[in-house]
Write a structure and sequence with these properties.
Length: 224
């Protein structure tokens, strides 16, 4: 268990003022809405020269591929508006992104049928894992713009993932590699006390939540 997971577990759950019904049902349990855009990562903000930057696709693919930013931006461009949710309990609604859908990038690749999981590799030394299926929805982007402008360095310039339906640590900033895998393998936070799947509406925050206690557990214990 990491210090971060440990601290978060002990943190008091904030009292969120009641929102209108429509907004309330968009807010996952235990989250607080913010208008700001918190910056969270570990390590130093990397610096790049776009002329040498690239994205490497490897693992369970027929051939490895290297994409430049120019090549990525020549793929079909998608605009999305999504709600995002961080495990540290902030949520932000209606974030606007521009990029290429992961599903559209996949059209360019020869991914082997055995590939069922993906590891996203990012700077500096960051990894996060997802089931391939979770990356195929229409709102999952490799994004280069936020709110109509290029990503700022702190939010992941030049390229980040946006996987809005999972806690935001799955949305790797400074994305550099996509590894297709047969078997699942845990990424950085998944290996430091955080949940492997990370669905905010199911409050899948911590790895200890992966082992659910059956509702009728108490019926099987000794009683008198
Ligand atoms: N490369 C990299 N990406 C990362 C992280 C990181 O430490 N390194 N942190 C993750 C976490 S924990 C969160 S909450 C989001 C925060 O993104 P933001 O700073 O744009 O809000 O980035 C995710 N992506
Ligand atoms: Mo986070």
């Amino acid at each position: 268990m990491s210090d971060k997971a440990d601290r978060l577990k002990k943190a008091r759950v904030p009292q969120q003022p009641q929102l209108g019904d429509e907004l309330q049902h968009r807010l996952p349990p235990g989250q607080t809405l913010t208008d700001s855009f918190p910056i969270l990562h570990y390590g130093e903000v990397p610096e790049y020269d776009l002329s040498t930057w690239n994205l490497r696709v490897f693992g369970e693919v027929e051939e490895e591929r290297i994409f430049t930013m120019e090549q990525l931006q020549a793929l079909p461009v998608t605009h999305t508006v999504s709600d995002i949710h961080c495990v540290t309990r902030w949520s932000k609604f209606d974030t606007a992104w521009e990029g290429v859908r992961f599903a559209d990038l996949m059209q360019q690749l020869n991914v082997k049928p055995e590939a069922r999981y993906v590891m996203l590799h990012a700077d500096p030394d960051y990894e996060t894992n997802l089931p391939l299926e979770a990356l195929l929805t229409d709102d999952v982007l490799l994004a280069w713009n936020y709110d109509g402008k290029p990503l700022t360095a702190k939010h992941g310039w030049p390229l980040r993932m946006v996987v809005p339906q999972l806690y935001f640590w799955k949305s790797a900033k400074w994305l550099r590699g996509i590894e297709f895998m047969k078997e699942d393998r845990r990424g950085f936070w998944e290996d430091h006390g955080f949940h492997n799947i990370a669905d905010p509406f199911q409050e899948q925050r911590f790895s200890s939540d992966e082992y659910e206690m059956p509702e009728d557990e108490w019926k099987y214990c000794e009683a008198d």
